[in-house]
C-alpha cells in the first residue's frame, strides 16, 4: 500500500487534504507540529480526528527553533490582527520560512517511512500573504525533495491553485464534518470570529452558502 | 555591513567556511545544531571558537525531531562504521533529509536577522555518500530560499566542488589552526582514528603533506 505523510495542523484545509489522501488510497501518517502557536487547540482537534480515523499521528514539539525566528503574533504575545485577510493586515503573522522548515521535516519523516509523498494544504488565498504558500515555492521545494535522498519524495499540494471556498466545497462533497476542525488564531473556548483566520474561514462558508458548525464569540 | 548565517558544526569544513565568510567581510552569525549527535563534543569546539572570535553563536537543540527520523549511528547506539569513506560503508550514517532541515532552519534565522546569505560547508567528497551534499541539491535549495520569503536568501557553499583536502589547503593558507576543530564521529577524549570521518580528515592532511594537530587513539 502506498504511504504518505500528511502535514496536518488540525485546521480545515489540512483536514480536507487528510481525507483526500485517505480516499486516494494512501496509508496516511499524519504529522502535526507544536511550534508554540497560541492556537495550540488545533492540535487537540488533530489528535481527536486521527484517533477516530485510527491513523498514525505524530505531534512534534519544535518550539526550540523559535529562538531563531523573529516573533510572529502566532507564537508570542503580540496582538493577532483582526479583520480582512489582506497582505498588509496579516503580514505580521508570517513565521519566517515556516513552510520550508515543516516540509523539510515532513520529507525527512517520509524518507524514514519509505513513503513517496508528502501532502500539504497550501492554497491560493494564502499565497498573497505567505510567500511560502505560492505555487512557485511549492514547485521549487519539489525539485529539492526529488533529490534530497536517493529515493524521491513528492510534495503534493492538491489545492495549490484553489481558494479556501473550493477546499470547503470539496470537503462538503466528501461529507466531511467541519466541526472537527479549528481555525481561529486565538486559542480560546470559542473561535473569536474577528481574526484573519476566522475571517477567511467564515468567508469560505459564506461562499458555499453554508453555516459554519463552530461556535463563535462574535459573528 | 552585510550579514550572513554560517552553519557551523565545529568540524574542519565549516570552521574553514566560517573564517572565509569573516574574511569576505560578513557580519557572521554562527549557527550550530544539537541533533543528538554522539560527537556532541564538536559543539564545544564550535563554542570555544566563536567566543575567541567574539561572534554571535547559537546552538539550537533539535533533538525532538529525531522521533521522525530513522536511526543513524550518528544519533543512536548503532556502531559507527570504520575505515574507508565509501558509499557502502558510510550509507548508514545518513540522517534522512538532514541538510534540507538544517538549511531551512538557517534560512529562517537569516530572514529573521535580515541577512541575505547562509554559508554551508558541503563539499565534493561528501556528495557520493550524502545525497544532500550534491551540487544539484544545493542549487535546488537555492531556488527555494530565493523565494521562501519576500527577500531572497542565498545559500553559499564555497567548497561545493572542492575536496576536503582543498578546503584544508585553503584554511592553512589563511593560517587557521585545525586543533580548534573536531571531526571524529565518536565523541571520546581523543579522536578514534578509525571511523569514516577520521579517515577522511587524516586523508586530507596527508594530501596536503601536513600533520593533523589533533591527538588520535589509533593513527
Model description:
2 copies of one chain form a homodimer. Chain A is of the alpha/beta class. The first copy, chain A, has one domain (3-207): Rossmann fold, CATH 3.40.50.620. Helix content of chain A is 36%, strand content 11%. Chain A has 7 helices and 5 strands; from the N terminus they run βαβαβααβαβαα. Chain A has helices at 12-23, 41-53, 87-90, 98-113, 135-145, 164-173, 196-207, and strands spanning 3-7, 27-34, 56-61, 117-119, 154-156. The longest helix of chain A has 16 residues, at 98-113. The first copy, chain A, is globular, with a radius of gyration of 16 Å. Chain A binds chain B through residues 31, 58, 60-62, 64-65, 67-70, 94-101, 103-105, 107-109, 111-112, 131-132, 134, 136-137, 140-141, 143-150, and chain B through 31, 58, 60-62, 64-65, 67-70, 94-101, 103-105, 107-109, 111-112, 131-132, 134, 136-137, 140-141, 143-150. Chains A, B: It comes from Kistimonas scapharcae. Chains A, B: Zn(2+) binds at residues 184, 192, 195, 198. Chains A, B: Keywords: ATP-binding, Ligase, Metal-binding, Nucleotide-binding, Queuosine biosynthesis, Zinc.
